[in-house]
């Protein structure tokens, strides 16, 4: 499970049912299990998301490695869009932040 920081002031864009709406827009159907959201898309057999606090979310993924290149690249693109919309950080900013830690 990976923990991602949420950009300061960005929590209001994902609080309540807004994170579920983001997931539904990008991944399609979303199942809710308490405070955990579960979906799938392309090579993502399962993506499980839980908001920890106003400062971080936890994301766990289960990947299917036996997919074609187009499905793999589409999955990566949509997953990065999700993380950007959920955390407020671009992939470049997340990479830079991870390198610091």
Provide structural commentary.
With 101 residues, the chain is of the alpha+beta class. The chain has a single domain, classed as TATA-Binding Protein (2-Layer Sandwich). A 5-stranded antiparallel sheet has the order 1-5-4-3-2, with helices on one face. Strand 3 and strand 4 form a beta hairpin. Helix 1 packs antiparallel against helix 2. The longest helix is centred in the last third of the chain and has 19 residues. The model has no long low-confidence stretch (mean pLDDT 94).
Write a concise synopsis of the structure shown:
The chain has a single domain, classed as TATA-Binding Protein, CATH 3.30.310. Helices cover 39% and strands 29% of the residues. The chain contains 3 helices and 5 strands, in the order E-H-E-E-E-E-H-H.
Topology diagram in text:
Elements: E1 2-5, H1 18-27, E2 31-33, E3 36-41, E4 44-51, E5 56-63, H2 69-87, H3 91-100
Antiparallel strand pairs: 1-5, 2-3, 3-4, 4-5
Helix pairs in contact: 1-2
Which features would summarize this protein structure in a list?
single chain; 101 residues; alpha+beta; TATA-Binding Protein; 5-stranded antiparallel beta sheet; 3 helices; 39% helix; 29% strand
CATH T-level topology: TATA-Binding Protein
Overall number of structural domains:
1
Task: Tell me which oligomeric state these chains represent.
Answer: single chain
**Mass-distribution shape:** globular
Helices, by number, come to 3
Residues in helices, as a percent range: 25-40%
CATH class: Alpha Beta
Major sheet summary line: 5 strands, antiparallel
Q: For the terminal residues, how far apart are their CA atoms?
A: 16 Å
């Amino acid at each position: 499970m990976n923990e991602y920081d949420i950009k300061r002031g960005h929590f209001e864009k994902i609080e309540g049912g807004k994170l579920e709406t983001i997931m539904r827009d990008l991944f399609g159907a979303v199942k809710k299990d308490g405070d955990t959201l579960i979906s799938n898309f392309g090579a993502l057999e399962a993506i499980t998301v839980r908001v920890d606090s106003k400062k971080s979310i936890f994301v766990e993924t289960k990947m299917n490695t036996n997919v074609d290149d187009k499905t793999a690249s589409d999955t990566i693109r949509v997953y990065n869009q999700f993380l950007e919309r959920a955390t407020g950080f671009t992939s470049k900013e997340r990479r830079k932040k991870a390198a610091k830690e």
